[in-house]
Design goal:
14 helices, 330 residues, globular, mainly alpha
């Protein structure tokens, strides 16, 4: 009688170690949980690539081409110029370089004043509305109106207010308060710088107010109460408690305001049009004029690349200095 062969699942096969299948399932589950956030971020990353990175790389390529109005139809066929566009932009004794240097200094002065005044007004308003009082919510909402309004609508309104003969500014200063001998021009000449600065500060300080108000919520009230018991006045409390506690918020706020203000194009373009006065010739509108008015896109792209490098350098130095100071404080 033939011997009966018992078929065993492990016969002729390598026996799987115990617990291997649950380990594989745990690994797949962990991978799926880790991959889900990246899958959710993938559409935003692709949109960022298409909207920002691709035009930026294209602009860098254009900076090395002799791209003028003769090659607009097919810009890729424009001849390579190497660093000639950068040399022209950085030749400060020549008309193009001299105009760019003037625009750079105007932008630096404008940025310093705008960021400083926006921060000063924002921190003052946030400290003033820190304690509860009747109508505080309504006042905070009113402070946020410039930030909530569309930029184009707000700046167009300001352009009407700055009109010499029919504007509200001259009506108040000249007709009612009699502070000026004659109605000044605000949108041309040297006064255009102060008109642009006024609109920029009016538009930017609510963001500083919102950010600093959020930072004030993290300061314990016990610190102010203890300081008051020790005899510290309001100014001493602000100098010893409020400002040091807001330092991490201020580091980020100042950097963001600097980048926004230095790159601001909408405000001067809507306020002055395609050609800004020399006193208010910000570098953003200057690059626009070099590209779309003179039709020299290669030169305008080179200026844009130089602006990008300058902002990256300032940001890197700022972050290095603030992080080093923070490390020394700790």
């Amino acid at each position: 009688m033939p011997e009966k062969v018992i078929d065993h699942p492990t016969v002729g096969k390598e026996a799987a170690p115990q617990g291997a299948a649950p380990a594989r399932r745990r690994l797949r589950g962990r991978f799926g949980r880790n991959a889900l956030p990246y899958l959710l971020l993938l559409p935003a990353l692709l949109a960022e690539l298409l909207i920002h990175l691709v035009p930026m790389v294209t602009g860098i390529v254009m900076a090395f081409k002799q791209l003028t109005q003769f090659f607009i139809r097919d810009w890729s066929s424009a001849p390579w110029s190497g660093f000639d566009n950068f040399k022209v932009a950085l030749e400060f004794n020549a008309p193009v370089g001299k105009a760019l240097l003037h625009s750079f200094w105007v932008t630096c002065m404008f940025t310093v004043l705008s960021v400083g005044l926006s921060w000063l007004i924002g921190v003052t308003a946030s400290i003033f509305t820190q304690d509860a009082f009747r109508g505080r919510g309504l006042l905070r909402a009113a402070f946020m109106l410039p930030y909530a309004l569309p930029v184009f609508a707000a700046v167009i309104t300001w352009s009407f207010m700055f009109q010499r003969d029919t504007g509200l500014i001259n009506h108040v200063l000249h007709d009612q308060l009699h502070l000026t001998d004659d109605k000044p021009f605000w949108l041309i000449g040297d006064n255009s710088f102060w008109a642009l600065l006024t609109v920029s500060v009016w538009k930017s300080w609510p963001f500083a107010f919102l950010t600093l108000t959020a930072g004030l919520q993290n300061i314990p009230r016990e610190l102010y109460e203890a300081a008051a018991l020790d005899g510290a006045g309001v100014w001493q409390q602000i100098r010893r408690i409020t400002l040091p506690s807001l330092r991490p918020v201020n580091l980020v706020l100042v950097l963001v305001l600097f980048l926004w203000t230095f790159n601001d194009f909408n405000t001067p373009f809507v306020l002055f049009g395609k050609s800004a006065p020399q006193a208010a010739d910000l570098i953003s509108i200057h690059i626009y004029q070099s590209s779309f008015i003179t039709w020299n896109f290669g030169q305008g792209s080179a200026m844009s690349v130089l602006l990008l490098l300058f902002l990256l350098l300032v940001t890197a130095v700022y972050l290095f200095a603030t992080n080093r100071r923070r490390g020394e404080a700790e």
